[in-house]
Fold these 2 entries.
Entry 1:
Amino acid sequence: MISKIVLASNNPGKLAELRAMLAPLGIELVPQGELGIPEAEEPHRTFVENALAKARHAARASGLPAIADDAGLCVAAFGGLPGVDTAFYATQFGYPKGDANNVKALLEQLRGHEDRRAALVSTLVALRTPDDPEPLIAVGRAAGEIAPAPVGEHGFGFDPVMYIPELGGTFAQLPPEVKNANSHRGQAARRMMELIRESWLR
């Protein structure tokens, strides 16, 4: 019986969200940093390939099953970019890495664009072993548009500018439970829970 899974990330926001969402399975989620596992290389151009690389790295280093999330912002006006480069988006424009600078750079680059459609995408990959031939893959996508300025106090990343029309606010304006119910990571985590139940816990 699987009782512990390594999360191939040290991002506290991701850890908190995924811990809350996976809690019903009764599985302990341990961040790789607690086990002394360094970050994996992410050389690929798609979310699924990078998530697979991170999960394999964490499973190999820990000897435990691993789960990895690769997520990013896909902006229609930029042909789907920044995509896998989302975390480092600001550095392309001379700013230090960080959420606030990412938002600042995005708003600057979108100035003058009428098309502000965007989607936050999360791809979760889970492996029983580093060589698991049947990785579990779950994808979530939250579509909306980029707000003209940051609004709201919750969340992280691009949440303050990710406006979801049907919810009437940005992800940062929504209570965490409402965001988790509708977010890209929330969608992917719910699907992953189903897959883990079906494939690993029966």
Entry 2:
Amino acid sequence: MTPLSRRAFAVAAMASLLVGCGGHGADRTTTTARPRSTPPPSSASASGSASASASAKGAHALGRSVPVGLRIPAIGVDTPVMRLGLASDGSVQVPPVTAHDRAGWYRHSPTPGQVGPSVILGHVTVGSYGDGVFRHLARLHRGDRIVARLENGTAAVFTVTAVRTVAKADFPADEVYGNVNRPELRLITCGGPRTGDGYLDNVIVFAALTSATS
């Protein structure tokens, strides 16, 4: 990442993340990230991705290439990927609530396959339009495949290492945004009990790069 991207990535880790769930039109519910001055150095995410390190050893880091699509066979996801930045309040943008829902890559994170945690967000519901692209994200299991299609024609294949449902008030920013020494992926949506304003929890999928094809 460039110095600017690193700063924006750190800002996102410290800011309140607005992960919109599209419950009522454009409603957004707040996830509070724990403040930290710098991302914690680590050899693997505390999420449990260290358990898959053996399977990821053969996967070499890829060069920078923006994701344009995402496929998750186990839950029937095949979606275009848009780019997301930071909102005016310093929170991470979320994809718009539309009939043709799609996932969004946070552009200040590494691209899928680069060293570090690449972050992709999606809705679980999109208001009156129905289910969101990540409606079944919580059904993923360790060992499931995720394929990120990159702009340069490469398919970066990741293997799920952990799936967690956490209270929005306890969003694990260090584990989602913290430094790792290999290419990893984070998929984020809403989950848990539904309230009038949205959902109380976040579903976070952690995955590690296992292969790539051109």
